[in-house]
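Sorry, I am new here, but would you mind making up a protein's amino acid sequence and the tokens describing how it folds?
***
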Amino acid sequence: MCSVHNTIEFEKRGIPATVILTESFKNTAVFHFRAKAMDGHPFVVLPHPVSNLNADEMRELTLRFVDEITSHLTA
């Protein structure tokens, strides 16, 4: 899972990072973080699927997670 690996590399360099994924990929993210000795690293889980949402629906969904994303990047 590239987004998890990218997040790990950013974090190793001292750059706050998080992963935004849908529920379908949650277990995969947990596995990859654990495998890279970053068990418990926070990530943001959106409902699945999102591919069927139009732009307005996606914007509305995304805005619901802004505070959570911000907290991951500023903690």
Summary: Residues 33 and 40 are 7 Å apart (CA to CA).
